[in-house]
Every structure is written in C-alpha cells, then in structure tokens.
Design goal:
The protein is α/β, with parallel strands linked by helices. It contains 10 helices and 14 strands. The two termini are 12 Å apart.
Length: 304
C-alpha cells in the first residue's frame, strides 16, 4: 500500500472534504457535514480526526493543507486576506493549533478587494490556483457558481478583480423560507430557460417576477416544478446581467459541480461567450497541491 505523504482539505460552511495523498496521487478520500457553520473553534481538530485519524502514521505531524472557511475569523485559525491584484496563492500559510502530534495543519489565506466594491474570497482562490496550474498562461474570467457565486478576472497569472453574488443562498432562502416555499418543488428545464430569459432581459423586474411565480400558481395552475426552475433561472439571469462587465468580450471558465455549472455554461454559450466547464473538486485538489509548495521542506515531509 502507498504511504501517506500529506492531506488536502476543503472546509466549507456546510461540508468538509479531505483527500489523503501519496505525492500527487489520491489514496484516501472522505467527507462529512461538519462544516464551519456547525463548529466552535474547539471542534475542528476532532472533526478532522474523525475523517483522517485512521490514515495517520505515528511520529512527526502529517502535513494538512486546507482551504476554505476554517481560515475565517470564526474558524479554526484566521488566515488573513491578501489584497488583489495578486497571484491566487502565496506563503506563508496560517498554522492551526493542534493537540494531536500526528497532524500539522496549514491554512490557505483568502483574497480581498476594497474597490470598485468591497469583496472577499475564501476557498475559491484555491480553485483558481488549481485552474491556472492546469492551464498555465490562461487569461480571462472564471465563474464559480454556488451558494455565493464568484466572478474572477485573471490576467498574467494574477487575480485582478472579482465580484460575489448571493445567488445560491437567495435561491435557498426563497425556496425554503419565503411565501414561495409552497409553490416550488421539482425541476423543469423549459421553465428554467424561461426564467433565465426573463432575468437576463429585464433584471430590474426581478422582485416583481418572483411574486409572479406565486400568483401564477394560485391563478393559472403553474406547476411547482416549473416554478422552481423559473426561480433558479430568474436569479441566475439577473446575476449574468449584473456580471456583464466580466463576461462580455471575454472567455469564461466555469468551475463548479453539475448540473449548476452546466446551467451557467449553457446560458453563457447562448450569449455567444466562449466557455468551458471544469470540475470543482479537481481544481481544488490541484490548488491544494500548488499550495503545498509554500511549506518549508521540513514541514512538507512526514515520518514513513
């Protein structure tokens, strides 16, 4: 069996995913729902050990390279933001306090900007770095759809600017906790396309269009699957309209999980934007491999 050299971790608000690696090759993989939103600072080490404890050899701490919300002010250890323009990764990495001497945890810092609007990234910078590692010399825009969608402008290997949209979070709040919650279940692809067109063409009508979903359900028998898909389309369409300065005249790489990433890519292709789709986990792992280069040689090794 291959010997574990290091561990990569993607620690989001709602989930934790880890990979055990021998060099660049994944030999273990695990995940849990122990995201930052469920943990106090004292809980992080236990949540990590619950997934990786059986992988760890005795002796010197196995390096763990982690990105995401464990580096936030409310996380395990704060990894201060770096100001753009800058490369997506740089050292030194923040070091988390651990009691178990089999672990040595290092956290990737996020990115910040103050203008044209205040914004922050934490976790996505690692996906961006992974994409650049796999596509050296690439210039353009990266779209990272999700709970908080990110649009990132890259030039000469640096993040020039970025913009965040609460599209995914707003969809969840509206679908689960608003007056629309009784009207939106299931999925209908044609309904998504209708909502997308409405959101793109008249984003200023978004708030009114949202209530129309409820009214059409009551008065015209609009099915809940169509309504849910139209809700998603409306929000993504409004996001694309607001992000026009990012994608217009640019090539765009969408990094995310299916089917959401494909919805964004199809919408951009319809707008004649050159677009490609890339798996989020693949880019994260490639970025964590790149971040490992910022460890000191003694930190990057472990007892065999």
């Amino acid at each position: 069996m291959s010997v574990l050299d290091w561990i990569g971790a993607d620690w989001g608000t709602s989930h934790l995913r880890v990979w055990g690696l021998a060099g660049d090759r994944v030999i273990h993989e695990a995940a849990s729902d122990q995201g930052m939103g469920k943990l106090t600072r004292a809980d992080y080490e236990g949540a990590l050990l619950a997934l990786v404890g059986e992988w760890l050899p005795e002796g010197q701490g196995t390096p763990v390279i982690a990105c995401g919300m464990l580096g936030s002010r409310q996380g395990w250890v704060e990894a201060p933001y770096r100001a753009v323009p800058c490369g997506p990764l740089a050292g030194p990495l923040a070091v988390a306090p651990v009691r178990d001497q089999r672990l040595s945890v290092h956290v990737v810092p996020g990115l910040q900007q103050h203008s044209p609007a205040a914004d922050v990234i934490r976790g996505e910078e690692t996906q961006v770095a992974g994409f650049l590692t796999l596509s050296p010399g690439w210039d353009g825009v990266i779209c990272l759809p999700g709970t908080h969608s990110k649009w990132v402008h890259l030039s000469a290997g640096e993040v020039v600017s970025f913009q965040t949209f609460l599209t995914g979070e707003l969809f969840h709040l509206l679908a689960e906790h608003s007056v629309l919650r009784h009207s939106v279940t299931g999925w209908d692809e044609a309904g998504f396309r209708v909502g997308l067109a409405h959101g793109l063409e008249r984003p200023e009508w978004l708030l009114s269009r949202l209530f129309t979903l409820r009214a059409e359900g009551l008065l015209d028998g609009l099915g809940p699957a169509i309504a849910r898909a139209r809700l998603s389309g409306l929000l993504i369409g409004a996001e694309l309209a607001a992000a026009k300065s990012y994608w217009l005249g640019q090539r765009v790489a969408v990094i995310g999980a299916a089917p959401l990433a494909r919805h964004y890519a199809d919408a951009l292709a319809h707008l004649s934007v050159p677009v490609s789709v890339h798996d989020a986990s693949t880019m994260t792992l490639a970025g964590l491999r790149a971040a490992r280069a910022f460890l000191q040689p003694s930190e990057a090794s472990c007892v065999r």
